[in-house]
Amino acid sequence: MKLKRSKGLMIIPTNAMSDVAFLLLIFIMLVALINYRKEVKIDYPEAREAVAKVSDKKNLELWINQAGDTFMDGNPASLAMIQDTIDDLYRNAPDTRVHILADKNTPYKNINKVLQILQFLEYRVVSFVVKDES
What we know:
Shape: elongated
Strand content: 15-25%
Strand order of the largest sheet: 4-3-2-5-6
């Protein structure tokens, strides 16, 4: 028996399309969960004006939490370790920006310890990171 093919509409099975969409959704969700940057939980101070954004490729992030503990790029660090790292940065890559991220309730004396190191080493490419009010 010979079957006739219709020359009209071609039917595409759509039951497999939902499977593909579901797998794509799972892939996107998993990739979005990957976070390579280690962060310390702090409450940022607010800024009244937006500041210029800088690229984060050549940054050294110094985190200071409320208790005065210091972290360098998300890892605990002593003040001596911070001083050695900044000294090496000054020699090898002087255009590297140092970002100071401190909790808004951190006493100034804890932030001042890091600032004294930067002042002693005469490091001038420093930014204080704040959260935009809007």
